[in-house]
What we know:
Elements: E1 7-11, H1 15-27, E2 31-35, H2 38-45, E3 52-56, H3 64-74, E4 79-84, H4 88-96, E5 101-105, H5 109-123, E6 133-135, E7 138-141, E8 146-149, E9 152-153, H6 158-169, H7 177-185, H8 195-207, E10 217-220, E11 224-227
Parallel strand pairs: 1-2, 1-3, 3-4, 4-5
Antiparallel strand pairs: 6-7, 7-8, 8-9, 10-11
Amino acid sequence: MTDSGIKLLLVDDDAELAGMLRDYLQQEGYAVDMAHDGEQGAAAALSGNYALAVLDVMMPRVSGIEALRRIRAGSRLPVIMLTARGDDMDRILGLELGADDYVPKPCTPRELLARIRAILRRTETRQDAPDIINVPPLTMHPARRRAEWNGDALDLTSTEYNLLEVLARHAGEPVSKQELSQQALGRPLGRFDRSIDVHMSSIRHKLGQTQDGRSYIQTVYRLGYQFIQA
């Protein structure tokens, strides 16, 4: 499988690791540019030249977390964070700031490739997508990957859009975290993985509350999450 023509940005101050990952991704058909500090990486990510960025958390000058904050201030470019294994605080903070997924370091090139492909697969326009999903006050246009709330555009990251689309397709029914992870992130949910919960918290904040003070996304005990109509 090749992905000719797709440009990726790899931001990591570990030149040896970054070079190894770049070589592997290039063998798989991607075009890969590298940056070695957060300031340079954030500027490159905002250039509009890339389909996805891979961003290390620990970097000199500007950290990966600050670089992500700068990226999210001006772009919805899909971002995968490289985090220290077991460092839950950086992982959760990255997700809260709008990272689409994370990969613990040290990681294998094959694992990173799988995460990249999963995200890109879900961001590309699908010819078989329905014209519209309408569960008022939410309207979604899957072919354009656009979501509207009471007629106004919703500012969602790629993963947030995927999660909300899955819930909208099953409006009124609970969807398990495992199913959400498979459909929206393209991978099984790990035993201690809180990424779905963090993404859901962000989506809830963006949707606000119903007139009676409830969240539009309800937690259903032992069953998962459920989108409710107003």
